[in-house]
Amino acid sequence: MGYSLQDEDIQGVLEEIGNCLNTEQLAKLSSRLIFIKWAEGQNKVQVKKVLIKLNSNRTIEATEISADTFVKIFETIHSNRTQLPVAAIRKLKKFMYSLSISQEASEKIYVQDVDKILNDEDFQVAVGFGKFPDVNSMSDRGYVSITAAEIYFEMILNDRNWDNSRIAEKTIPGVARGVGYSLPFYKYIQDISPLLLPPEIQKMLLSNLNYDSYIPKSRKGYVIGEGSVKEIISRYPNNVKKQISEIPFLRDKLDKDDLHAFIEKILLEDKTFYLDHKMGARSSINKIIRIWDFLEYGESYCLKYSDEIKKINIDL
User: Fold this and answer.
1) N or C: which end of the chain has fewer CB within 10 A?
2) Could you tell me the end-to-end alpha-carbon distance of the chain, in angstroms, rounded to an integer?
3) Is the pTM of the predicted complex or chain greater than 0.90?
4) Separation between Cα atoms, residue 12 and residue 289, nearest integer Å
């Protein structure tokens, strides 16, 4: 803008550029080379293609726009904005590409050449970015990557907006195999017939049909005579591990809402207590989360589908 094609300096710059490019690169440059020319008395904006002859007997095609005022041109440029600055997109692409060639989370990274998506109306942002042929397939891969710890946290905090049917189909089978089939699952199968469940969930279902399933065989006869979750907390005020270990033995007196509040407080106030293996509390907390899952969802599910459960044919 503001320069003439006849300007010697402009011609010199184009000559130097032309000497560095092959035919294909010259064609790409031509599509991006635009000269805006002031033309006194020209009421309408005119656009045309022009050929610029180089001293090397090569030519560069350019677009020439001429007008006696640049207001319309500036208004057009102003209205033609990308959703993200190109520089930001390129930096994001470089960052995501670095992740995609690393050894970590490679199945969850998708990257496409930024130049192929800038003008694509189907441009999407996911873990990586680009246009994906099957968003549902990509989403399924995300469900496969969910861990047991995430399932336990979501079970109580309900903060992930997961599709329960996909959790049952895509997540739980693989995770269950990795944790010895010790996982909460009733929440995610509420609307699925036992006969349509993956074999891994059917196996857990048949092993967890009643409250006693969650009590160690060596302590089946142990019952806390009187009390509640709140009373156990008061009885052992400075010993959370003892509170956790005693709560399951409330049995019929165990209030599921009190249990949920107790677990939620632990997960929200001190995640380290759960996540740190050295604390030795994870397995005990996991157990009471599975108990809560059974009380909240499992008892009603087993009653609703009692006939179908009897028809499951699987080796335990």
Assistant:
1) C
2) 77
3) no
4) 75
- How far is the CA of 284 from the CAs of 141, 215, 243, 280, 302, in angstroms? 30, 11, 10, 8, 24
Q: Distance (Å, rounded) from C-alpha 140 to C-alpha 160? A: 15
How does DSSP assign 224-280, residue by residue?
-SS--HHHHHHHSTT-HHHHHHHGGGGGGG--HHHHHHHHHHHHHH-HHHHH-GGG-
pLDDT tens digits along 101-153: 444 444 444 445 555 555 555 555 555 445 544 545 445 657 888 899 999 99
**What pLDDT, in 10s, does the model give residues 39-70?**
888 878 888 888 877 777 778 888 888 888 88
Buried-exposed string 208-234: b where 16+ CB fall within 10 A, e elsewhere: beebeebbeeeeeeeebeebbbeebbe
Mean per-residue pLDDT of the chain? 81
Q: Whose CA is closest to 107, among 129, 127, 131? A: 127
Collapsing DSSP states into helix, strand and coil, what is residue 67? strand
Return the structure tokens found at 257: 């809402």
Of 60, 52, 66, 53, nearest to 2 by C-alpha is: 66
- Between CA 214 and CA 180 the distance in angstroms is 14
Top pLDDT among 97 and 274 is at 274
Tokens at residue 81, please? 């904005």
Q: Residue 312 burial by CB count (10 A; 0-12/13-18/19+): exposed, middle or buried?
A: middle
Note whether 58 and 26 are within 8 A (CB): yes
Burial of 11 (0-12, 13-18, 19+ CB in 10 A): middle
